[in-house]
Amino acid sequence: MQTDFLVIGSGIAGLTYALKTAKEFPDKKITVITKTQADETNTKYAQGGIAGVWDEAKDSYHKHIEDTLIAGDGLCNEHIVEIVVKEGPERIKEIIAYGAEFDKDEKGEYSLGKEGGHSENRILHHKDVTGKEMERALLDELRTVKNIELINHCFVVDIITQHHLGYLVTKSTLDITCYGVYVLNLHNHQIEKILAKITLLATGGCGQAYRTTTNPRIATGDGIAMVYRAKGKIENMEFIQFHPTALYEPGVSPSFLITEAVRGDGGILRNKNGEAFMERYDARKDLAPRDIVARAIDNEMKRSGTEHVYLDCRHMDKEKFIHHFPNIYEKCLSRGIDITQHMIPVAPAAHYSCGGIKTDEWGRTSVKHLYACGECASTGLHGANRLASNSLLEAMVFGHRCFLDSKEEINKHSFEERIPDWNATGTTEPGEMILITQSQKELQQIMSDYVGIVRTDIRLERAMKRLDLLFAETEALYRSTKVSPQLCELRNLITVGYLIVKGAEFRKESRGLHYNTDHLQKSGLLQNIIL
Fold first, then answer.
1. Which CATH class is domain 245-348?
2. Long-range contacts: 77-82, Cβ < 8 Å, 24+?
3. What is the dihedral of CA 472, 477, 479, 482, to 10 degrees?
4. In the chain, helix, strand, coil percent, each to 5?
C-alpha cells in the first residue's frame, strides 16, 4: 500500500494533522491507522480540559508561560512554551468551529476552570469528559473529508528505514530516513508494508508500563519504542507524571481518574485521620503542581501504612458538582460512594509521559520524513513536569505545526520501491500466551516497585537487571514465534521501561517528576537526558 501522508494514531494530535493535511491537499491520499477503534485513545480519557488564555482582561500569555515554566522545574524550552501558549487559543477556536462544545455559564460566556499550578482560571472544559468531546468533534469532521482513509485494527510493528535495505544504521547515522511502516493487519493476521512519503507518529503515552495507570490498555509506548529501535533520538523518559488522584480500586486497571478540576473547585485532600495535609508540603496546598501533590500523597500513605488517602468533596455544592462532574459522581455512586456523605479514596497512578521522541519546533524528529506530536513526542514544552491541561493544547498546536512543515516537504519526496516484504521464515505460532502475559505483569511490577514516584539508586539498579532478563527472554520469543499484538506491545513496554530507568540512572539529581532520595538536591547543570 502507498499513501502520501501516513498518520499513526487517531487521538487529537493525529486527527488535527490529518484534517488539515487532507483539506490542504484534496488530491493526495491521507491514511490514518489505529490499533483498535478510532476513538480509543488517551485523548478520550482526558477529563479536566484544555488550557488557554481566553479572558485577556484577567489573564495573559505571560502568566500562562510563567506557570508552565515553574511547573517544568527549569527544563522547559522557553521558546517552545511561548509558541504553544501564544498559538494555543487559535487552535482552540478551530476545534470549536469543528463543533466541539465547551461549558458556558449563565451569561453564555465560557466557564473557565482552575487547576494545580495555574495562577488564573483558564481551563475550558466539557463537563468531566473534555477529551472525549474533542475527539468526537474531530472524528465527525474527519467523516466529511473524502481523501482520508481510516484503518482500524492495524498494528504497527516497526518503522522502515535504510536498515531494511541492508544498510548499517547506527545512532551516528546522519540521514536515517523513514520510508513507511510494517503493520500487522489484525483482520487477516498478515504483516503488510505501507509506504509513505511522510509519516506522523501520534501514538500516545506509555502508562501501561506501570501496574496502576489512568491510561487505556493501548498506551504501550509503541511509537517511542519504534523510534528508539530505528536509532532515533529519545529524551527525558525519566519524567513520568503520576496523577495524584485516581479512584482507589485494588486490582482495577485502568484506574478511573478523578480530575484535578475537582480540587480546582474546592476538593480537599485528607489523610486517614481526616487531616488536610497539603498545607504541610506547599503553600499552594491542594493546587500545587502534580509532582508535589503526588509525592505528598505517597509520603502520607507510607507514614500511615495505608494504600490511599481521601478527597473530601462533602462541603461542595451537590448540584454544581453533578453539573460539572457527572461521570465522576455516577462512578463514585456505582461504588457505593455518595460524595455528599463520603470522602473519595484516591491514590496516585501513572498518567503522562513528559519525555518521548525528541522533536524540534516543527515536530520534526531526528529521522528524516518522520514527524511526531502528542504525548509520544518530547517537544520541550513540559520540561520535568507537565502543567495540568497543557497536553491537549500541545497536541493541537504541534499537529498544526507538523502540517505547516510537512506541506512544504511533500512534493520533494518519492516512494522507496525497494522495500522487501516481511520475512517470517522459521517462526511458529506461539505455544503459550502465558509467556507474554506473565512477562508483562513482571514488567509492571518492576516499574511500579522500583521506578515509581520515589526512587533510589539501588532500586534503579535492580530494575535494570530484571529488565535485562525480560528483554533477553522476549527477544528470543520474538525471533522464534509469529508476531502478535501482545508480543509487540510487550517488546515496546520493555523498551520504554529500559528508557525510563536509563534516564533515571543518568539524572543524578531530584527534579520535577524524578525524585531520587540518594540525590535530593538539584544540580546546577540543567540538561535533557537524550538516549
1. alpha beta
2. 77/379, 77/380, 77/381, 77/383, 79/361, 79/380, 80/361, 80/379, 80/380, 80/381, 81/380, 81/381
3. -160
4. 40, 20, 45
For the annotated catalytic residues, the residue numbers are: 290
- Written as nine digits, the cell of 140 is 465527525
The amino acid present at 292, given as its one-letter code, is I
CA dist., res. 481 & res. 400, Å (int): 40
CA distance 393 to 92: 8
d(CA 290, CA 396): 22
For residue 381, CA distances in Å to 144, 294, 360 come to: 32, 21, 11
**CA gap 394, 205 in Å, rounded:** 14
What gap in Å lies between CA 194 and CA 178, rounded to an integer?
Answer: 11
How far apart, in Å, do the first and last CA atoms of the chain sit? 32
Please state the rounded mean pLDDT for residues 12-33.
96
Break the chain into its structural domains and give their ranges: 2-238+354-412, 245-348
pTM: 0.94
Per-residue pLDDT tens over the stretch 319-360: 999 988 999 999 999 999 999 999 999 999 999 999 999 999
Residue holding cell 493546587? 287
Can you tell me whether residue 128 is helix, strand or coil? coil
Amino acid of residue 358: K
Dihedral of CA atoms 162, 478, 485, 422 in degrees, nearest 10, equals: 40
Q: Which three cell numbers stand for residue 291?
A: 509532582
In 3-state terms, what secondary structure has residue 338? coil
Same fold, 2-238+354-412 and 245-348: no
Q: Where are the alpha helices (DSSP H) in 239-383?
A: 261-264, 290-304, 318-324, 326-334
Q: Tell me the pLDDT tens digit for each residue of 479-523.
A: 999 899 999 999 999 999 999 999 999 999 999 999 999 998 888
SS3 368: strand
Quote the DSSP letter at residue 8: E
In the CATH hierarchy, which top-level class contains the domain 2-238+354-412? Answer: alpha beta
Q: Label residue 297 by pLDDT band (50, 70, 90).
A: very high
**Predicted confidence (pLDDT) at residue 41 exceeds the cutoff of 80:** no
Rounded Cα gap, residues 184 and 484, in angstroms: 8
Q: What stretch of H or E contains 312?
A: strand 309-312
